[in-house]
Amino acid sequence: MSYPKLDTNPMCGRAYETYTEDELYLRYLNEGAKRAPLGFKPNYNLAPTQLSPVVVNRSGLPEIALLRWGLVPAWAKDIQSASKYSLINARGEEILEKRSYQQAFLKRRCILPLSGFIEWKRESEKVKRPFAIHLKGDPIMSVAGVWEHWVSPATGEIFESFSIITTAANSMMQKIHDRMPVILSRESEAEWLDPKNQDPARLKQFLKPCPPEWLAAYEISTAINSPRNNQPELLNPLQYP
After folding, report:
1. Confidence bin at 241 (pLDDT 50/70/90)
2. Which of 44, 61, 146, 152 might form a disulfide with 104, Cβ 3.0–4.6 angstroms?
3. CATH of the domain at 63
């Protein structure tokens, strides 16, 4: 698999998922929900083009499916042409103005369950320090996203993908970066996923930074820079001599 060139200026471009499949089901699915085995294994360095568990609501109940990070919009002729746009993040302030995201935002919203995400603090043109950001009081954060069901006009191939929604950074994140993912509260998850909720004004109310006291951050090794590295030690706090 080829990976996109690392660009640490736009966010959010890297994350991690250290939970188990059972923990994921217990967190998001009720008794009547669909629980198809995913074959999921923890990912310590989730990068664009990789598959990730995503919570969606297709028919009234939440379910979890593996989707590719990097939205392929409905209008795309093929996956390759869509990839050049690098649709891994959707700016919440502009989401209704972009044809790649507009219909997905109104009809196909999702939750990306993360243990945390990675962001780089730019010290200079050449020096960027990676930080792991996570919730203080919950092992899984619910990141707002949009997803798309794309069918190849040439072959009929079905391809499902997602993009993370970002917003302006809160006061905690401003020390590292000027943007952050939209992190939902537990109370807002069901309404966010509900496909019947298509009121733009009501939906836009979710697209705001979470309270800064929800989050904690610590510096990690630059070994995280390469998506080919994927081991638990990547997330250890950086130890200075």
Report:
1. low
2. 146
3. 3.90.1680.10
The answer to whether residues 48 and 34 touch, using CB atoms and an 8 Å cutoff, is: no
**What tokens were used for 233?**
């030690």
Give percent of the chain with pLDDT exceeding 90.
75
Q: What's the Rg (C-alpha) of the chain?
A: 17
Residue 54 exposed, middle or buried by CB count within 10 Å (0-12, 13-18, 19+):
buried
Asked if residue 204 belongs to a domain, the reply is: yes
Catalytic residues: 12, 119
The pLDDT-based confidence of 152 (bands split at 50, 70, 90) is confident
**Number of folded domains that form the chain:** 1
Three-state DSSP at 13 gives coil
Asked, for residue 207, whether it belongs to a domain, the answer is: yes
Q: How far are the Cα atoms of 58, 60, 158, 191 from residue 196, in angstroms, in the given order? A: 10, 9, 24, 9
Q: Is residue 34 part of a domain?
A: no
- Structural domain range at position 74: 15-29+43-235
Q: Which residues contact 12 (CB under 8 A, 6 or more apart)?
A: 88, 89, 117, 118, 119, 164, 166, 179, 180, 181
On whether residue 57 sits in a domain, the answer given is yes
Across 200-212, b (16+ Cβ under 10 Å) vs e yields eeebeebbebbee
Each residue of 186-231: pLDDT tens digit? 999 999 999 999 999 999 999 999 999 999 999 999 999 999 999 9
Separation between Cα atoms, residue 33 and residue 64, nearest integer Å: 9
Helix H segments across the chain? 21-28, 79-83, 102-107, 189-193, 200-204
